[in-house]
Design goal:
disordered C terminus; 11 strands; 18% helix; Dihydrofolate Reductase, subunit A
């Protein structure tokens, strides 16, 4: 089974996957915040293929502020997914590239009243310490966005892992050593290794990067991912 053909989801449920790119020493950026070249060219192409296979890509506001990403599929064949930013306090400026009117759907999830550019769909949700990942998935599904990629940052991905909402996690490791800076996944610590999550994992060499394809939870056990049939065409896009 191929890397993309192995995507699976439970019947009748939204499909939520996550992807994170990191160095050999588990860093996602330098101390100064430079994250532009953590992934190699094959790792970047893989990420764009992942985007092409989902309805929407989700990032947290910190990633949106630091990287000002476009979240397009410009490196492969396919359609740009909807862009979703989780911005509880309305910190992301309206001239961010995520909000550019380029034909893709644009969605912002916030807890405050803040006007957004024309065409941007606004979801207002309650917040305690963080907006509930389950509430985010439910709200996006009401918009018809069922197949989701949580792309960053590490804290946002960790929240979805801890909420047991991921069906798959892709960890792309590039052969470089950064030495210091933000680390990759930062889930809640455990006291004993017996408590650790040990997902069923397949490993794929992409060329410049290595991807760990991790099956998460029990809801990922049943059927082939609905978009998997597109994967063969996109692999070499």
């Amino acid at each position: 089974m191929t890397l993309y053909g192995s995507m699976i989801a439970a019947p009748g449920s939204p499909h939520v996957v996550a992807q994170i790119g990191q160095s050999l020493d588990g860093r996602v950026a330098t101390v100064s915040g430079d994250a532009a070249d953590v992934s190699g060219p094959d790792g970047l192409a893989h990420l764009h293929r992942m985007r092409a296979l989902v309805d929407a890509v989700i990032v947290g506001v910190k990633t949106a502020l630091q990287d000002d990403p476009r979240l397009t599929v410009r490196l492969v064949a396919g359609q740009n997914p909807a862009r979703v930013v989780i911005d509880p306090s309305g910190r992301l400026p309206n001239d961010a590239r995520l909000f550019a009117d380029d034909g893709a759907r644009r969605v912002v999830i916030q807890t405050v009243e803040k006007s957004r550019p024309a065409g941007v769909e606004v979801i207002t949700l309650p917040r305690s310490q963080w907006i509930s990942p389950a509430a985010i998935v439910a709200a996006l599904r009401k918009l018809g966005l069922n197949h989701l990629l949580v792309e960053g940052g590490a804290i946002t991905i960790a929240r979805f892992i801890e909420a047991d909402l991921l069906s798959r996690l892709h960890v792309a490791v590039a052969p470089l050593l950064i030495g210091a800076g933000p680390q990759g996944l930062t889930t809640q610590p455990i006291a004993k290794l017996a408590q650790a999550r040990r997902p069923e994992t397949q490993v794929y060499g992409l060329g410049s990067d290595v991807v760990f394809d991790c099956l998460m939870g029990t809801r990922a056990q049943a059927q082939v991912w609905p978009h998997a049939k597109q994967a063969t065409a996109l692999r070499h896009g």
